[in-house]
């Protein structure tokens, strides 16, 4: 709660203006029955039209003022809620971005989508309506009671007897709704996950002609979503209708008891009318309290989900005395490195040294841990035991941002953002001039292609770059690296076969990119790494072989030699 209210701090003025206007609106509403009372008991018997018109004109002024205040309450009140929603969303997004690979390995994107959208909309609604409506409702109830009590204490007490019962019922249903809405939120997030997964993979679905199966699956989840929603709405309907019934009972009570007191001469006609009108006004705060109670579970569930994610601590982060890595020379040392994903040990006591400017290729069976080994260098994960050093210093002693600025990664599965070519190439250097971008494209063997597009650098690449071929995407990733110009490179070689011309283009671009940088290549096709300074064979047991292509080929029963021979035999068949 403390955290929730801290979001109001920057908007104190907005909050109090909105609050003040809402209080005045509530008070002015209460004035109307009193004016009717005056009308019936004083002005009507006097027969003085002048006073009647003055009173009517006064009433119009009051209504105009109220209309203006209502506008402020509705607009600025929602502005308050939206501002808070925006701030919470910014904090959440900022935090999510800092979380480590491990978090994303175990979290569904659809869930995060729900947290950032639906959940926070509900929090915004609660932020606006929660405290304000509750306070105004309680104030109006007390004000109404005070007026009724001043007119006729006994009738006032009779009218209010049911109010606590209405509140008790509302609280009872609120508890039930909290449970129902929590379930509903879970369903929304499953739903978003499903949509994200299946629409993202629509090409695969269509390629396997699995539309019907996916549609049936979707219908099933959609139905479960509907069921959960109906459950929540049923509780809501019980709450609304039982409260409505009890509130109408209040009117009947007032009618009967009021008629009795009026006939006994304890109440004037005007006071009787005022009582009935106030009982109608009474419904408003009760309905408001009810609405807040309906809103509350949504908002609380949303805010709880928010705090849950905010409590996630990134397992890879800067330590207090971390220093920036300026421009790395590129000396890399793995010292007795062991690494496990959760409880699955992938790397065991690996030690290796790479000299500045050297190109080292990692080869080995699939799943041996080549990618994992390289992803420890930019600290996508931290080592479980041992240490990795860059230029003689533990990478955990450098600030994370500076370490990653010094390392460029070209992944086998190139990710492009939906935007233009310029956005994607200049992603690592947004301030780059067009000439620089073109120079990078040239080095990546892509300039001709970009020139052939009518929109040049402004060509839209489609979602995840669907409008480009695999080879083109690879070269965009390479161009990105030319622009970023890091001293250390990690190249996760594409496994997919490209045509010879494209392969030659990419290889030329990669060789050029590797020049003068310390380069770690995760190699799948051995033909491409013959010229690497050194080749290391990674197996589940560790680095099994280490040397140049020639020296490894000279080993009679060497793993590299057998891998190489097997690939060569496969390619020539
Ligand atoms: N994020 C992850 N969470 C849990 N286990 C993982 C994760 N990434 C990889 N693994 C597991 O770690 C092991 C090593 O995977 P890695 O991708 O490093 O191997 P690789 O040698 O690069 O394989 P390939 O040549 O097929 O790309 C595999 O058994 C894999 O299943």
UniProtKB/TrEMBL annotation:
It is a multi-pass membrane protein. SUPFAM superfamilies: ABC transporter transmembrane region (SSF90123), P-loop containing nucleoside triphosphate hydrolases (SSF52540). Its main location: membrane. One of its GO terms (molecular function) is ATP binding. It is found in: Cell membrane. The chain crosses the membrane at residues 12-40, 52-76, 134-151, 157-174, 243-261. The keyword Transmembrane helix applies. Pfam families: ABC_membrane (PF00664), ABC_tran (PF00005). Keywords: ATP-binding, Membrane, Nucleotide-binding, Transmembrane, Transmembrane helix. The keyword Nucleotide-binding applies. It comes from the Bacteria. Gene3D superfamilies: ABC transporter type 1, transmembrane domain, P-loop containing nucleotide triphosphate hydrolases. Residues 19-298 form the ABC transmembrane type-1 domain. InterPro entries: AAA+_ATPase (IPR003593), ABC1_TM_dom (IPR011527), ABC1_TM_sf (IPR036640), ABC_transporter-like_ATP-bd (IPR003439), ABC_transporter-like_CS (IPR017871), P-loop_NTPase (IPR027417), Type_1_exporter (IPR039421). Residues 332-565 form the ABC transporter domain. May be involved in multidrug export. Transmembrane domains (TMD) form a pore in the cell membrane and the ATP-binding domain (NBD) is responsible for energy generation. This is ABC transporter ATP-binding protein. It comes from Salinicoccus sesuvii. The lineage of its organism: Bacteria, Bacillati, Bacillota, Bacilli, Bacillales.
